[in-house]
Amino acid sequence: MKASRVAVMLSLVQGLLLVPCGKGEIVLSRLPWTGRTFSVAVAGNHAYLGAPGHLVVIDISAPTRPVPVAKAAVPAAVENLCVRNTLVFAAVGKAGLLVFKSKNGALKELAHYEAGHHVWGVTLGNRHAYLAAHDSGVRIIDIANPTAPREVGWLDTPGLALAASVSGKYLYVADGLGLRIVTLSRGTRPKEVAFVPTPGPALKVAVARGYAFVATYDFGVRIIDVSSPESPKEAGFFDTPGLALSVAVRGRFLYVADGPSGLRIIDVADPRTPKEVGFLQTPGFAEDVALSENLALVADTEDLRLIDITDPTNPRELSAFDPRREIDTQAFAAPVEWPTTAIGSCCPSHQLATR
Length: 355
Hints:
The protein has one helix spanning 323-329; strands spanning 6-11, 15-20, 29-30, 39-43, 46-51, 54-59, 67-73, 80-84, 87-91, 97-103, 106-113, 121-124, 128-132, 138-142, 150-155, 163-167, 170-174, 176-183, 191-202, 204-208, 211-215, 221-225, 233-238, 246-250, 253-257, 263-267, 275-280, 288-292, 295-299, 304-308, 316-321. The protein is an all-beta fold. The strands form eight sheets. A four-stranded antiparallel beta sheet has the order 4-5-6-7, with helices on one face. It has a four-stranded antiparallel beta sheet with strand order 8-9-10-11, with no helix packed on it.
């Protein structure tokens, strides 16, 4: 892996560091490491929470009273989740990719793909999963048979692939150094067609309405015009007060998991002049956000928080689910019927809900 300008490294003690390569190395940026990593995805009336050592399914049909209905042990931290129909795809760091079937109040592991790389993110195309695999770039996994995923292609990226999102025939990769746009028109032989550098580390990306929204830590969210994916250009940016770690888009509003500054809601109707219209301070460190109907689900280092965003200018917390307590002490609910669509940062933009 060539990273001529910047090397991005993870330390479980110190967090994510950016240091120039070569002589005179210095720390450019540091992400605080809390020892507790959460990720969240939503499908219908169920939230999927990646908690330390577990994947938990939570019934959110009554948002003021979330109820855990299934859980499964996982060998490492769940860095990212993607849900399609009854299948759950979990990026589990050095352990690779786990595939579960969720039905009848239980999680059944279908496959464990040991990627041989640290898998930070997973996103889905028609028959392929795309893994953001750190210094091993993007790995393309055939999931036509979810019980036997297999690698069929890859693309080495110059930075560190931390997250990805599919929109149409393109893959958008948050690659540490910036946003890389990759054409998928050649099937299992992806090719980079454009790159937009970002001032801070590109950590997560969501694509909607011809724009890519890139979370760049202490440089806020960069808004990239990708209406012509092979000629992208930055249209605007919003410098959040905290640390932009994850993003989700619905209609004209952008929802940002902003680390110590909780959930920030940004009006991006005019991407050139985004403006904050609402926020909700969370007690913990907001790490991930997913949307479902009129709910924003924020995974912080304390709880999964269910937030009413019916009025984006006045978000209200409805409840909080504490996995530390609930996983060990609460009986799991009776079997339920599972949804067939998913909303979350892993999903292609055409699957995102719109107002």
